[in-house]
Amino acid sequence: MLYEWGFEESKFGGVAILHHIPVTGMADVLLRDGKFNDRLLPALSMRYERSASDDGSLDPEKQWIIDLHEELQKRLKLVDPPFRSLGEIRLSSWFGKLKNWTAP
After folding, report:
1. Which of 27, 37, 78, 100 is 20 to 30 A distant from 86 in Cα terms?
2. Which residues of the chain form beta strands (DSSP E)?
3. Which of 95, 72, 76, 93 is nearest to 85 (CA)?
Protein backbone atom coordinates (compact mmCIF):
# COMPACT_ATOMS: atom_id res chain seq x y z
CA MET A 1 0.00 0.00 0.00
CA LEU A 2 1.27 3.43 -0.90
CA TYR A 3 -0.97 5.17 1.58
CA GLU A 4 -2.59 4.25 4.86
CA TRP A 5 -6.32 3.79 4.93
CA GLY A 6 -8.73 1.76 7.01
CA PHE A 7 -7.60 -1.73 7.95
CA GLU A 8 -4.34 -1.25 6.06
CA GLU A 9 -3.03 1.44 8.39
CA SER A 10 0.48 1.04 9.74
CA LYS A 11 1.76 -0.62 6.59
CA PHE A 12 4.03 1.34 4.21
CA GLY A 13 2.01 4.55 3.86
CA GLY A 14 4.26 6.41 6.27
CA VAL A 15 7.53 4.69 5.38
CA ALA A 16 9.91 6.45 2.98
CA ILE A 17 10.80 3.73 0.47
CA LEU A 18 9.87 5.09 -2.95
CA HIS A 19 13.00 7.22 -3.31
CA HIS A 20 14.91 3.95 -3.79
CA ILE A 21 13.04 3.38 -7.08
CA PRO A 22 14.76 5.01 -10.07
CA VAL A 23 12.77 8.03 -11.23
CA THR A 24 12.93 6.87 -14.84
CA GLY A 25 11.53 3.47 -13.88
CA MET A 26 8.61 5.00 -12.01
CA ALA A 27 7.99 7.40 -14.90
CA ASP A 28 7.88 4.39 -17.25
CA VAL A 29 5.11 2.88 -15.15
CA LEU A 30 3.23 6.14 -14.57
CA LEU A 31 3.15 7.35 -18.17
CA ARG A 32 2.67 4.84 -20.95
CA ASP A 33 1.64 5.64 -24.51
CA GLY A 34 0.85 9.22 -23.48
CA LYS A 35 -1.59 8.17 -20.75
CA PHE A 36 -1.15 8.24 -17.01
CA ASN A 37 -1.65 5.09 -14.99
CA ASP A 38 -5.13 5.63 -13.56
CA ARG A 39 -4.42 3.64 -10.42
CA LEU A 40 -0.87 4.58 -9.57
CA LEU A 41 -1.06 8.36 -9.96
CA PRO A 42 -4.04 8.68 -7.57
CA ALA A 43 -2.35 6.27 -5.14
CA LEU A 44 0.77 8.46 -5.10
CA SER A 45 -1.41 11.51 -4.59
CA MET A 46 -3.18 9.88 -1.64
CA ARG A 47 0.15 8.78 -0.18
CA TYR A 48 1.40 12.33 0.12
CA GLU A 49 -1.92 13.94 0.95
CA ARG A 50 -2.52 11.54 3.83
CA SER A 51 0.92 10.44 4.96
CA ALA A 52 3.14 13.46 4.40
CA SER A 53 2.36 14.74 7.84
CA ASP A 54 4.36 16.93 10.15
CA ASP A 55 6.33 13.98 11.48
CA GLY A 56 8.66 14.12 8.46
CA SER A 57 8.53 10.38 7.82
CA LEU A 58 8.28 10.87 4.04
CA ASP A 59 10.75 13.75 3.80
CA PRO A 60 13.41 11.54 2.16
CA GLU A 61 11.04 11.23 -0.81
CA LYS A 62 10.68 14.98 -1.42
CA GLN A 63 13.52 15.32 -3.92
CA TRP A 64 12.43 12.09 -5.60
CA ILE A 65 8.93 13.54 -6.14
CA ILE A 66 10.40 16.76 -7.55
CA ASP A 67 12.62 14.75 -9.90
CA LEU A 68 9.69 12.53 -10.91
CA HIS A 69 7.60 15.59 -11.71
CA GLU A 70 10.40 17.01 -13.89
CA GLU A 71 10.84 13.67 -15.70
CA LEU A 72 7.12 13.39 -16.41
CA GLN A 73 7.07 16.97 -17.72
CA LYS A 74 9.90 16.10 -20.12
CA ARG A 75 8.12 13.00 -21.33
CA LEU A 76 4.83 14.82 -21.85
CA LYS A 77 6.57 17.19 -24.27
CA LEU A 78 7.04 14.19 -26.57
CA VAL A 79 3.35 13.23 -26.49
CA ASP A 80 1.11 14.24 -29.38
CA PRO A 81 -1.80 16.63 -28.85
CA PRO A 82 -4.45 16.43 -27.46
CA PHE A 83 -3.00 13.82 -25.09
CA ARG A 84 -0.13 16.15 -24.18
CA SER A 85 -2.51 18.83 -22.93
CA LEU A 86 -4.59 16.33 -20.99
CA GLY A 87 -1.45 14.89 -19.41
CA GLU A 88 -0.09 18.33 -18.53
CA ILE A 89 -3.37 19.28 -16.86
CA ARG A 90 -3.42 16.06 -14.88
CA LEU A 91 0.22 16.36 -13.85
CA SER A 92 -0.25 19.99 -12.85
CA SER A 93 -3.26 19.07 -10.74
CA TRP A 94 -1.41 16.21 -9.08
CA PHE A 95 1.77 18.14 -8.36
CA GLY A 96 -0.12 21.26 -7.34
CA LYS A 97 -1.36 19.39 -4.30
CA LEU A 98 2.23 18.53 -3.36
CA LYS A 99 3.93 21.90 -3.90
CA ASN A 100 3.64 23.03 -0.29
CA TRP A 101 4.99 19.71 0.98
CA THR A 102 7.95 19.65 -1.43
CA ALA A 103 8.90 23.28 -0.78
CA PRO A 104 12.21 23.64 1.09
Report:
1. 100
2. 31-32, 35-36
3. 76
